[in-house]
Amino acid sequence: MASSATKHFARQRLTALVQVPLTIWLVISAISLIGASREDMLAWVSTWWVAALLVAWFLSVPLHMSIGIGDVIDDYLHKKGTRSLTHGLNSIYALLIGIVGVTSVIAITLIA
Amino acid sequence: MSESAHQVKFIPGRNAPMSPHLQVWKFTVTMAASITHRATGIANAIGMLLLTAWIASAAISEDAFDAVMGFLGSTLGLILLVGFTWSIMFHLVNGLRYLAMDSGKAISKEAGNLTATLAFVASVILTGLIFWAGFTFGGAN
Fold this sequence. Notes:
The structure holds two protein chains of two kinds. Chain A is mostly helical. Chain A has a single domain (4-111), classed as Fumarate reductase/succinate dehydrogenase, transmembrane subunit (3 helical TM bundles of succinate and fumarate reductases), CATH 1.20.1300.10. Chain A is built from four helices and no strands. In chain A, helix 1 (4-32) crosses helix 3 and helix 3 (48-76) runs antiparallel to helix 4 (80-111). The model of chain A has no long low-confidence stretch (mean pLDDT 95). Chain B has a domain at 29-44 and 74-137: Up-down Bundle (3 helical TM bundles of succinate and fumarate reductases). Chain B is 72% helix and 0% strand. Chain B is built from four helices and no strands. Chain B is extended, with a radius of gyration of 21 Å. The model of chain B has no long low-confidence stretch (mean pLDDT 90). Classes of the chains: A mainly alpha, B mainly alpha. The A-B interface holds A 13, 16-17, 19-20, 23-24, 27, 31-36, 38, 41-42, 45, 54, 58, 61-62, 65, 68-69, 72, 75, 78-80, 83, 93-94, 97, 100-101, 103-105, 107-108, 111 and B 12-13, 16, 18-20, 38, 41-42, 44-45, 48-49, 51-52, 55-56, 58-59, 62, 65-66, 85, 88, 92, 95-96, 98-99, 102, 130, 133-134, 137-140.
């Protein structure tokens, strides 16, 4: 793409578009899972298409939130050191959410 | 990045512009929607801890899953869930508004004010519907 700014802009919109249907689906699923036992939960997560959509969710969301929070950091933190440090923490947090989420989904498909 | 001869150097904390200005502003509903979009975005990122804990605990053990479900079903857990749900709903609806605006739709002042107001109203209605559905159809009762 033309520049890193264009890529940044496009990625934020692309992940947003992906997350609209995924979030609606996840909210409805969560409602239907209220009061579910761990076994019900494992059976649901390990359904192949549910696992695939959850992995898509745990890849898209960390990217979207790291870009969004990165923008907030750029707007409000002006000291170079603090800004760089916060950008680093933001990336680590997004990576952790993504890794734990994807790993959990894969682990469930293996144990269920 | 290419270095041009007339490039203006902005030094953060010295001459870089602040966005948005923190002292000079007036209340508009579009401004409120913009600030709320950022605030809910940050809240959603923190709320991902709950969602990730939910999936991860199911992967870990029966005890871990029961602990997370017990917490989410407690008074504090339910308050957090209502807040997280509203935060997601606002960010979702207002995000759709921004996607429409990015494609050139509803960008007049009137349309912007109307859709911003609708985003606030819709987010509250959707949150209400979700919890109504949860307590009616879910296994919570």
